[in-house]
Every structure is written in C-alpha cells, then in structure tokens.
From TrEMBL:
This is Proteasome inhibitor PI31 subunit. Residues 245-265 have a biased composition (Pro residues). Residues 243-271 are annotated as: Disordered. Keywords: Acetylation, Cytoplasm, Endoplasmic reticulum, Methylation, Phosphoprotein, Proteasome. Belongs to the proteasome inhibitor PI31 family. GO terms for molecular function: endopeptidase inhibitor activity; proteasome binding. One of its GO terms (cellular component) is proteasome complex. Plays an important role in control of proteasome function. Inhibits the hydrolysis of protein and peptide substrates by the 20S proteasome. Also inhibits the activation of the proteasome by the proteasome regulatory proteins PA700 and PA28. Pfam families: PI31_Prot_N. One of its GO terms (biological process) is proteasome-mediated ubiquitin-dependent protein catabolic process. It comes from Anopheles coluzzii (African malaria mosquito). It is found in: Cytoplasm; Endoplasmic reticulum. Residues 17-153 form the PI31 proteasome regulator N-terminal domain.
Amino acid sequence: MPQSDLFGLEMLWKLESANLADKADAMMLFVHWFLVRNGFRNVGVGDDKTLNNAVDQSELLPEGWNGNNKSYALRYIMNNELYILHGTLSNDTMIVNLLQAQSLQVSNAAFNLDKTITSFNDSNLTNMVVSIDDQITRLQTELIKPLCDGGSKSSSTQTLISSSPSPAQVNVVPAGGGPRRIQVLRPSGLLLPFGGGGGVGRGDLNPLGGVVGGGGGGGMLMDPMNMGPGRVDPFLPGARIDPMGPFPPRVQRPNPNPDHLPPPGYDDMFM
C-alpha cells in the first residue's frame, strides 16, 4: 500500500483518462499532479517566459497539453514565480526539466517509462505507477527541491583573523592626482636601532651593542671602544677621540698630549 498522500490523483486520472494516448501522457499527468500537490498552479501551455498575472490559474491540465506526445511544455506559477515544465521522450525515457523563468535555474529527472508505468489500461493510475512512493520521492528531491529549497541555503563566509601587525600608512602623491594612501606592513621581528626587545638582527643594527643599548654584541667586527672582555680602559692607545660618557674616569696619559697643538715647525724636515 502506498504511504504518500495521493489526494486528487484519482480524480485527475478520471478527468483525463480519455485524452491519454500512451505511457508518456500518463507520466506527464503524474508529474502535473505532483506539482499541483506542492502548490504549483498551471497557467497554460508553451515556454513563454513572460508572466501575465491576469491569466487564470488552475489545478487542471490545460487544453491541448498533450498535442505532441514526444515533447511537452507546460507553464506554472507559485509564489508569483513562473516555472516552465518540459518533458522530452527519448528512447523510452521521459526526461523532465523544471525551469525557473526568472533565475533560469533548471532541475531535471529522468524516468524509464517501461519501468515506471505498467499496463496503460488500468482504471486506477495508482496501480499503474511502479513503486509510487519512490517516484514521488524522486520528484521531490530531483525536480522541486533544487529550485525551491536551494535558494534558502545561505553560504557562510568565514573570516580569518591573523596576528599580523597593524599596517603603517604612507601617503603617496601620484603624478596626476591628490595623495593616495598606501598600506605598508611593518614586520614584527624588525626593531629600530637601539630599541628594546630581542628582535632578529638587533645586534647588527647597534654597532655599540656592548656599551649602549642594553647588552648584546655589537654589529662591528672592530669595536671602536675596544670593550672586549677583561679590558677596563675604553680607549685605544693614542686614539684621538673624545667619547661621550657615561664611561670610567679618563686615565691620565703621559706627555705629549695628543690633543695639544704641535710646536712650530714640527712637520719641517729641515729643522
């Protein structure tokens, strides 16, 4: 016994049974009944995609709907949307397409007539459709659901939040217009010279790393202050530099003081 609600199918069959010529007509009548049961109303034959609200809406099949039993075209309306039902017979297979006229979305289902419709002479269509519950399920999932339920699914957009530093802003003035703002990323591992923290390459940016800047090796192979391990005197012998502190008290050096002016004629080789 079929478990689906088949209300209206028997009445439709009795109204149209005299007009049915073959299994293809019976198959299209079954599809029409299913659409009507799901809220669709017929508004005529053809594949015109313009909707006239003044046309009568009906649960019945329109006159001349099976004038060509190799190709069918029926127009339906639901929720003020126009749908066009196409049925094409090809090698004993009925290919059914449902087109939404506004969005041009199409759904389709294919039925082998010999395996779907039994003896055509039965007085009850419910006995002619093989496994009628399965055929109803196919029409629901393959023909109606892709159009009527597909649009209700909203695709969610996932936003990824990165831990990148906030970009710096640079104003650039193009040749033919006003200033344009460009975002420049500042790498998180690069620090300004003599800055705090332990960024990569910090020692190379501070030539006086052992003296100024809070520890770490300097970036110069030859430290101008010669502050290697175990050396107290911050000055090179005879170096003519006056470093600025804080440094240990200056060591008294023997005369002549290199900072004093040389005597007259110091560089005259004939004196």
